[in-house]
Amino acid sequence: MPAEAARAEVLRGRLYPSVFRSEAANKKLITFVWLNVYNGLARLRFLASGAERRVERSPVAKRLLADLRQRGVAVTDVEAIGAGRELAELRDKYRQEPAGLAAEGGRIKEPMVQRFARNPMVKDVVDAYCGLATSRQQAGCILHPSTRPPSRRGNAKWHVDFEDLHVVKAFLFLTDVEEDSGPTEYVPGTHPHGEHALALAEQLRRGIPLEEEAPLGIRPERLVGRAGTVALFDARALHRGGFGRGKWRAMAFCSYTAPNWVHPQLGFSLYIAYTFGVYAPLVRAVSPWNLLLAPFRYKVSPEVYRD
């Protein structure tokens, strides 16, 4: 039992399918297969969509793409993406903490978030970052109550979202998110385009303590901002969810992946279908195409933490 408890406190696994001894070679191979074989049609749709040209013409979108590639995080505000009026009703709805919210908070389905998820600038930047026409995976609201949890647990511990090579999340802050609101923490440069991506893959083979305060010797950064902030984040970076210290926090979010995940997750697909009413990931997870072209079965965390 002590040995099992010790294992549960370490994030350990393979970030890329192990074909070669070199993590750089593994990453290069699976990225090519993911982009050109698993998702070849999505790649062609992206090239024909004009998204790259639209991003290049927009100073805001161009900066977001550059920041996302360099840091794994890009931040702007709701007015800059041209959605201030469109999303005003959603922002008003969650300004105040609702009564009866569970102590641990959670995710809820919220139809108005679809307006945010369909924002053309957000979608163009995410597609340009991934190099293909992405699909929405989840959309809803994350609510954290003003009560302080007793300890970090679940997605509040270090983890990597591993179902696909890029899992880009778009957040709209519905309240101010400050240090005591339990902001998401991330290790900069550990996303797939980052300078520490291979270091993360190599360290995961040995194990990363879930409670470590500076993984890989890098000080984490926090995703904070005022209400109305829009943040794009590649959750393939090492990160952990918010650990609130007594302040109400609400965020709208949507998540984008390739149409065909590199690592189909039947259980996670069922969760998405049940929680958010999004059935496309489930259909793809059981399709013959996905089962045939996703032979790599690998696991990053014994408890599969996600935020």
Question: Could you characterize the architecture of this molecule?
Answer:
- By secondary structure, the chain is α+β, with helices and mostly antiparallel strands.
- It has one domain: q2cbj1_9rhob like domain (Jelly Rolls, Sandwich).
- 35% of the residues lie in helices and 16% in strands.
- The chain has helices spanning 2-8, 23-38, 40-49, 51-57, 59-71, 88-93, 113-117, 120-130, 197-206, 266-276, 280-285, 288-293; strands at residues 10-11, 73-77, 106-108, 135-144, 168-173, 185-186, 208-209, 221-222, 229-234, 239-240, 249-257.
- The strands form 3 sheets. Strands 2-9-5-11-4-3 form a 6-stranded antiparallel sheet. It has a 3-stranded antiparallel sheet with strand order 8-6-10, with no helix packed on it.
- Helix 4 (51-57) packs across helix 5 (59-71), helix 4 packs across helix 8 (120-130) and helix 5 crosses helix 8 (120-130).
- The chain is globular, with a radius of gyration of 19 Å.
- Residues 1-7 and 302-307 have low confidence and may be disordered.
